[in-house]
C-alpha cells in the first residue's frame, strides 16, 4: 500500500531520517518501534505530508505522493491522527466527529440559501454516523460531553473515531497508548483490530508498549538513527542483534522498552 524509498529528512545538519526504506502491506497492522529519537515521528510526518522530505520518495498504491499536503492525502484515505485541537475542546464529542470534513453541503452560502432541506438531511446522517462511530468505540455514553472534559484514553478513542468519519484506507497512529490506562489501552487495541478486520483499514502504529505491539502488530519494523534496522515478527525483532544493540546503546530506559 505504501512504499517509502530512501527517505531523508534533515534538520539543519542533523539527519533525523537518514535513508529509510520500507513497505507497508495493504491490510496489515504494521508496528514501528525504535529508541527515543530514532526518527519515527519524523518519518510519519514525512509520509503523512506534515513535513516535506529532504529527499526520497513515498508512493501509495503506486502513485507518487511525496510531499503532498495532509489535506490531499486525507482525500486519498491516508490519515494521521492528531490531538483534538484546543478550539474543539468546548464542543461535544459527537460534534467533534461531525466536524470531520466529508463533503457536507452545509458550507457554502449557495447551499445555505437553496439547500436547507438537504442540509438538514445530511446533518441527520452525519449525526447518526457519529453515534455509530461512538458505539463502535464503546464510548457512546460520552457523546454529549465536551471533548475537553473526557479522559486521556477517551480522547485517544475519539481521535481514532475521527478517522472513521471518512473512508480511510491507511491510518498512522503515533503513540496512541501513551498515558492511557491498561483497560483503555486494550479497548483501543481492540478497536484497531476490528477496524482492520471488519473495515479493511491498514494501520501503521508507533508504540513503546511491547505488549500492545505484540497484541496487534505483524510485521514490526525497527528504526534507529533514522534508518530501518530490521523488519519481521516481534519475536524476530526482539532476537535481532542489531536491534538489541540499538536499544542498549541508548540507555537503560530504552533497554527496558524491548525487554532486552
Ligand atoms: N523540527 C525539528 N527540528 C530539529 N530537530 C528535530 C525536529 N523534529 C525532530 N527532531 C530531532 O530528530 C530526531 C528524531 O526525532 P523523532 O522523529 O521525534 O524521534 P522518535 O519519534 O523516534 O522519538 C530527534 O533527535 C529530534 O530531536
Ligand atoms: Mg515520536
Structural commentary:
Residues 2-250 form the ABC transporter domain. This is ABC transporter ATP-binding protein. With 260 residues, the chain is of the alpha/beta class. It has a domain at 2-90 and 166-257: Rossmann fold. It has helices at residues 40-47, 70-75, 93-98, 109-114, 116-136, 152-163, 182-199, 210-216, 234-239, 241-248, 252-258; strands spanning 2-11, 14-24, 29-33, 55-60, 63-64, 78-80, 170-174, 202-206, 220-224, 227-232. A six-stranded mixed beta sheet has the order 6-7-8-3-9-10, sandwiched between helices. α6 runs parallel beside α7. The longest helix is centred in the middle third of the chain and has 21 residues, at 116-136. It is globular, with a radius of gyration of 19 Å. Residues 40-41 line the site of magnesium ion. Magnesium ion binds at residues 40-41.
Structural class: alpha/beta
CATH topology of the domain at 2-90 and 166-257: the name is Rossmann fold
Q: Quick check: average pLDDT? A: 89
Number of helices: 11
Overall CATH architecture of the domain at 2-90 and 166-257: 3-Layer(aba) Sandwich
Major beta sheet, strand line-up: 6-7-8-3-9-10
Shape: globular
Give the strand content: 15-25%
Oligomer: single chain
Low-confidence stretches: none
Distance between the termini: 32 Å
Amino acid at each position: 500500500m505504501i512504499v517509502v524509498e530512501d527517505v531523508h529528512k534533515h534538520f539543519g545538519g542533523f539527519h533525523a531520517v537518514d535513508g529509510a526504506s520500507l513497505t507497508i502491506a495493504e491490510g496489515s497492522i504494521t508496528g514501528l518501534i525504535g529508541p527515543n529519537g530514532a526518527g519515527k515521528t519524523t518519518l510519519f510526518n514525512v509520509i503523512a505530508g506534515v513535513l516535506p522530505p529532504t529527499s526520497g520518495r513515498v508512493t501509495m498504491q503506486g502513485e507518487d505522493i511525496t510531499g503532498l499536503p495532509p489535506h490531499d492525502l486525507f482525500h486519498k484515505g491516508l490519515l494521521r491522527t492528531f490531538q483534538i485541537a484546543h478550539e474543539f475542546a468546548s464542543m461535544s464529542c459527537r460534534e467533534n466527529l461531525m466536524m470531520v470534513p466529508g463533503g457536507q453541503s452545509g458550507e457554502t452560502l449557495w447551499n445555505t440559501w437553496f439547500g436547507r432541506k438537504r442540509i438538514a438531511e445530511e446533518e441527520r446522517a452525519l449525526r447518526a454516523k457519529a453515534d455509530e462511530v461512538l458505539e463502535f468505540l464503546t464510548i457512546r455514553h460520552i457523546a454529549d460531553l465536551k471533548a475537553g472534559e473526557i479522559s486521556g484514553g477517551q480522547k485517544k478513542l475519539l481521535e481514532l473515531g475521527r478517522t472513521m468519519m471518512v473512508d480511510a484506507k491507511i491510518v498512522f497512529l503515533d503513540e496512541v497508548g501513551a498515558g492511557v490506562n491498561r483497560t483503555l489501552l486494550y479497548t483501543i487495541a481492540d478497536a484497531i483490530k476490528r477496524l482492520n478486520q471488519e473495515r479493511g483499514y491498514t494501520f501503521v502504529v508507533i508504540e513503546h508498549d511491547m505488549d500492545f505491539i505484540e497484541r496487534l502488530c505483524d510485521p514490526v519494523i525497527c528504526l534507529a538513527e533514522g534508518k530501518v534496522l530490521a523488519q519481521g515478527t516481534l519475536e524476530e525483532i526482539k532476537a535481532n542483534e542489531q536491534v538489541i544493540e540499538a536499544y542498549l546503546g541508548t540507555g537503560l530506559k530504552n533497554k527496558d522498552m524491548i525487554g532486552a
